Please model this.
Amino acid sequence: MPTAIFTHDACLRHDMGYGHPERPERLRAVVAALEETEFSELVWHQAPLVEREQLLRVHPEAHIDRIERTAPERGLAQIDGDTAMSPGSLEAARRAAGAVCTAVDLVVDGGTTNAFCAVRPPGHHAEPAQAMGFCFFNNVAVAAEHARAKHGFERVAVVDFDVHHGNGSQAAFEAEPAVMFVSAHQSPLYPGTGRATERGAGNICNIELPPGAGSAPFRQAFERILLPALRAFDPEFLFISAGFDAHRDDPLAQMELLADDYGWVTSELAALAAQHCDGRIVSTLEGGYDLQALADSVTAHVRALQAA
Model:
């Protein structure tokens, strides 16, 4: 069954200002790469607006209200030192979260086995009550809770291979044993969380990789620790926070991965999903700031999803 792609032009209208690394060109590069002939079988969908009820499963009403009040009619509204809202940001954030929830519905209803959400802003740094790190709503956390609440899944896993630790996703689930969160990320690095000692309710598994780490330690982290932990958890649905900023060409970190590493880890996760989840995977774009490295890495990721 063809992989589904969710995106929307509104995600291009979120702009945090001149020179910001999380810029509209990132999504343009991703979409252009996926429009190549190799991917002619992909099925494209427009990302809908998230429902308030879906957001409320992760974010308190005060947080949602704060984001809505902060959204400017013109110019930029600064949330923190590196996170700002433009007039197009609120709709983009709503569609990014809506894409991942609707992808869950499509997978559950049998419309596809897996999906990739080519959306922005990213989400994995957004804590339940705090926007930060380029993120406003935690897209993958909202979708995971949607899968549990609407479709009744009892064991859901979130895999995060962004170079930065997904502090927001961990914060959302660290007291919820029905959701497993696993992450391989550079440390030390922003946001300073993600220690191996952070175990939550026994459902958190963090692997800290040093600056300069490349393919071998990354693959070993998955082979020896993260994949076995996921198999033991036996998830019914698998989510991927797909950040591609551990690539050696990325300007915001110091790891040394290549596009092939993203293809490899996606294939490994797809094999696990075939065994435990009837193949059910929803992946959503997080980081990745060198445009060519991002395009190449997304291509490898989606190619592996297609082959699953």
In short: Residues 4-307 form a domain with the Arginase; Chain A fold (CATH 3.40.800.20). The first helix runs from residue 24 to 34. Strands lie at 4-7, 43-46, 77-80, 83-85, 114-117, 156-160, 179-186, 204-209, 237-242, 281-285. The chain is about 40% helix and 15% strand.
